Amino acid sequence: MVHMQEIDGSVLEGGGQILRMSISLSAILNIPVRVTNIRAARKNPGLAAQHLKGIQLVANMCQAELKGAYIGSTEIEFTPGKIRGGHYVADTQTAGSISLLIQVALPCALFADGPTIMDLKGGTNADMAPQIDYMDMVFRKILNKFGADFNMQILRRGYFPRGGGHVRVEITPVHMLRSISLMDRGEIGDIGGISFVAGNLPVKFAYQMADGAKHEMGSNHRLNIRSYKEDRSMAPDNCNGIVLSCSTPSCVLGACGLGRRGVSPGEVGGSAGRLLRQVIDSGVCVDSHAQDQVILYMSLAPGLSSVRSGSSTLHTQTAIHIAETLAKVKFEITSEGGQDIIKCAGIGLVNKSLPEEQ
């Protein structure tokens, strides 16, 4: 009988992060898992549509045996098979974040036996998750440092509450990841970004968000923000948001803001600008959105990876807990002048489904 690794879904962050990390690493490392107490302390415990679709997507990719996969379930069993490239579709049928679907499925596709195309449907610019533009503008460039890549095409925008967004992601598998050293940030160059409105909202809101961001960033930084209104055929529903990014020779940083009722466009842009300014002033090499996302890749890469970050978030601590449980690696976090240095000697996983590199 195959041993099934037990994962308590209520520890630390106690939400979707545990599920995403557990399912991704289960598929990649071919370790059956049983996740219990799923989102036990949440107002609505158990699997929501977004979590369920992410698990089912990975299950399809690796031909897994899946038990307990239904809305509201607080326990699942996931027994993976071989990860296969191909064409996969996942639709949250809500405004559930497409970025979080990418988080759970992308690492699996990198260790598939061939190229993967994913058509993902749901929310493109959602609260409590990285906006889809952040994944392209910031996270993709960080992933490049691990020796991996993906291509993304936004076919339709989807916002709360209706969703309906559609993103196509194309991934070429890797033979092996590369370790990273994001320790010396270097000089910040120009800051870029997008500031958008959609639906019935006036385009002046986009310019007001950009102005708010510029005001918070101050005169020490040069900002090039594209302010625009989405075409109604691309984005029929109301939404306004902003995504900022900046690069150095070794690092990529970003920040997001999303409009909500009762918050002026200037405040939305100002909050994103203030967040990015604080990240820049702190001297770190990854922002809070990327901090937890790099943990899985650090655990799988060969040799020592090191990252200079802000204080480790609960999401990051959760990711480390699952990586140490399933990949049997050891992370070391040391505090240094208000920053955390995160280090891990990864397992150097080889994708044996691909032909040997010449």
TrEMBL record:
GO cellular component: nucleus
GO MF annotation list: nucleotide binding; RNA-3'-phosphate cyclase activity
Alphabetical list of Pfam families matching this protein: RTC, RTC_insert
GO term, biological process aspect, one: RNA processing
Documented EC number(s): 6.5.1.4
Family: Belongs to the RNA 3'-terminal cyclase family. Type 1 subfamily.
Family matches, as HAMAP family: RTC
The protein, known as: RNA 3'-terminal phosphate cyclase
Source organism: Danaus plexippus plexippus
